[in-house]
Amino acid sequence: MRVSPSTAAVSGPAPAVEATDAQPAAVPAPKRKSRVRQAETQLGLTRRARRMNRTLAVAFPDAHCELDFTTPLELAVATILSAQCTDERVNLTTPALFAKYRDARAYAEANRAELEEYIRPTGFFRNKTSSLIGLGQALVERFDGELPHTLDELVQLPGIGRKTANVILGNAFGVPGITVDTHFGRLVRRWAWTTEEDPVKVEHAIGAIIERKEWTMLSHRVIFHGRRVCHSRKPACGVCILAKDCPSFGVGVTDPETAAKLVKGPEAEHLLELVGR
Fold first, then answer.
1. Is 100 a catalytic residue?
2. CA 277/CA 270 separation, integer angstroms
3. Considering only CA atoms, which of 190, 179, 192, 177 is closest in space to residue 229?
4. With CB atoms counted within 10 Å of each terminal CB, which end of the chain scores lower, N or C?
5. Catalytic residue of the set 33, 163, 201, 264
6. Which are the contacts of 31, defined by CB distance < 8 A and separation ≥ 6?
7. pLDDT at 46 over 90
8. Quick one: average pLDDT of 250-254?
9. Is residue 33 scored above 90 in pLDDT?
């Protein structure tokens, strides 16, 4: 159900205006109609969230991790580099990096100044260099140079927090995980799936309403939608395939012609076809 901004509340009746020859009686302005979303039960929320996930699957059938990698270690490194950096920039940086540093021992024994130069374009390169060297050392010392397969073990490694661990688990090891990045958190709050701000609480809240087997793909679909349609400042509401289920419809551009120009990415034509544009 779409929600329109309601008119400002008025306390008490408006004072009457006496008609005179110079000033006719004021005619009350017609009240604006507003749609107010009914209080949603937990069951209703679960059904709506799962329906939206199915719709996103139609919109983004090829959703995937947009970081380039061929091994679990490469994905871990790329994810560490993606902090405060775009995936595109990371993907431009990692080919030379991966060719130079092929395993955990290579990172563990890396020359700091040299490694810094390889990853400098991704920003915060000194801190990231410390994380990569520390990661390599920890893997060599504790895991025979291989990334572990569990969340508890991954989050103990340098540079790997819960978000990075879920990316690795879901995309390198096939273990379902919810990746709460900026886009994911912003959209699930906009959709009223949760009001939580803390990423871990968001992860648990969404995990409670979406089937576990869907967690990894849901993460990709939501992130794709956030990057292509549901932008932070100017969401393309007028051509959004989720419009009928979104309680925030109208926070962005609702005119279809104008909204269509806001859709980004290689799926733009497909997304617009789905809404009849």
1. no
2. 9
3. 190
4. N
5. 163
6. 7
7. yes
8. 96
9. no
Average pLDDT score over residue span 59-76: 97
CA 146 – CA 222 distance, rounded (Å): 30
Token pair, residue 175, equals: 């273990």
d(CA 262, CA 219): 22
Residue 1: what residue type? M
Q: Is 103 a catalytic residue?
A: no
Among the listed ranges 27-36, 80-89, 132-141, which one has the minimum average pLDDT value? 27-36
Cα dihedral 148/153/157/162 (nearest 10) = 110
Identify the active-site residue in 68, 87, 103, 181.
Answer: 181
Residue 75 contacts by C-beta under 8 Å, 6 or more apart in sequence?
65, 67, 69, 167, 168, 171, 172
Q: Which amino acid is at 126?
A: R
Per residue in 82-101, pLDDT tens? 999 999 999 999 999 999 99
Beta-carbon contacts of 134 under 8 Å, excluding residues fewer than 6 positions away, are: 157, 158, 159
| pTM for the model | 0.82
